[in-house]
Design brief:
This protein is of the alpha/beta class and 318 residues long. It is built from 11 helices and 12 strands. The strands form 2 sheets. Strands 6-7-8-3-9-10-12-11 form an 8-stranded mixed beta sheet, sandwiched between helices. Strands 2-1-4-5 form a 4-stranded antiparallel beta sheet, with helices on one face. The protein is globular and about 65 Å long.
């Protein structure tokens, strides 16, 4: 079997705050093969976005990061910042949750795309023409005129298409998308997801979708990584995870997913709350919310292999 494009191994992140150390990630591990589409799902506060920020080394200065992020044979956590700056955008690109916040409000969007191309020397002296072509590629009408527009002159859906164009400008090998459909209407959400995953497939890119929407993950991704309170609790092919979730938390998430539910009362919420990551934490951070937990769960979590490409971190899997 060939080596994965990116392998995250024992990634831990702790934020130093006035209220104490926040252990946001604890030994997070997963991998993504070249051309594969993987979703990272979980509730708000589960560590999904922190994981992406740690991979790209764009977390705040109060973050202490340990572990290993092996990308194309290099540990991204160990290379100089100058080399990491060359990786961002050119080899790993990110589509951020809030497109308006990701764009410079006082610079035309075409110039912002051209800046990315010029920085990584991917368009020679014709960065502007390439920027217009990219806007056309992501489906923005009249791209020559729109390239001269400022972000406030574009709709939310168009701004997200601009951000996708920027992310794909250098044809990176890995695309990270952090809640890319937040704030968009349902029709625009589908258009943006179809566009992003379609272009990634056409260009042979691997993609990681960060989302709280398990149904969206199942629709667009090959494999799903489930996170809870900074832990990876389950990692499985999408079809397998939906049909046979093995971690109690995953089963609760599936039960809370609207797909297939005929009535509101058929949906089941996940009981309890995420633990305070500043306090004393049990080896299983789901322990206080789990109906199957007992004293055995207070030992160090095992990672059990449940089937092909299916792993669960649980003492009492379903």
């Amino acid at each position: 079997m060939s080596a994965p494009l990116i392998a995250v191994e024992d990634l831990s992140v702790t934020f130093a705050t006035r209220g104490g150390a926040v252990r946001a990630l604890d030994r997070v591990s997963f991998s993504v093969a070249a051309g594969e589409r993987v979703a990272i799902v979980g509730e708000s506060g589960s560590g999904k976005s922190v994981t992406a920020g740690a991979v790209l080394r764009i977390l705040d200065r109060n973050a202490a990061v340990s572990g290993r992020v092996a990308f194309a044979g290099r540990d991204l956590l160990g290379i100089p910042e100058r080399d990491m700056a060359a990786v961002r955008g050119a080899e790993i690109a990110m589509v951020f949750q809030n497109p308006r916040a990701a764009l410079n409000p006082i610079r035309p969007v075409g110039r912002q795309i051209a800046d990315v191309l010029a920085r990584h020397r991917r368009a020679g002296g014709d960065a502007w023409s390439r920027a217009v072509a990219l806007l056309r590629e992501v489906g923005i009408p009249d791209p020559e005129r729109r390239a001269r527009a400022y972000p406030f002159e574009l709709s939310g859906g168009m701004c997200q298409r601009v951000v996708i164009a920027m992310a794909l400008a250098c044809r990176p090998r890995l695309l990270l998308a952090d809640e890319p459909t937040t704030g968009l209407d349902v029709t625009t959400q589908a258009n943006v997801m179809d566009l992003m995953t379609g272009l990634a497939s056409e260009n042979g890119m691997a993609a990681v979708l960060i989302t709280h929407d398990l149904a969206l993950a199942a629709q667009y991704c090959d494999r799903i990584v489930v996170m809870h309170a900074g832990h990876v609790v389950e990692d499985a092919p999408a079809a397998v995870l939906f049909a046979h979730p093995r971690h109690p938390y995953t089963a609760r998430l599936v039960a809370a997913t609207p797909a297939g539910a005929g009535r509101l009362d058929e949906l089941a919420s996940v009981p309890g709350e995420l633990p305070d990551l500043r306090g004393a934490l049990l080896p299983c951070r789901y322990r206080a919310r789990c109906e199957r937990g007992d004293e055995a769960c207070d030992a160090a979590l095992p990672v059990r292999v449940m089937g092909p490409a299916h792993r669960v971190a649980c003492w009492r899997p379903l």
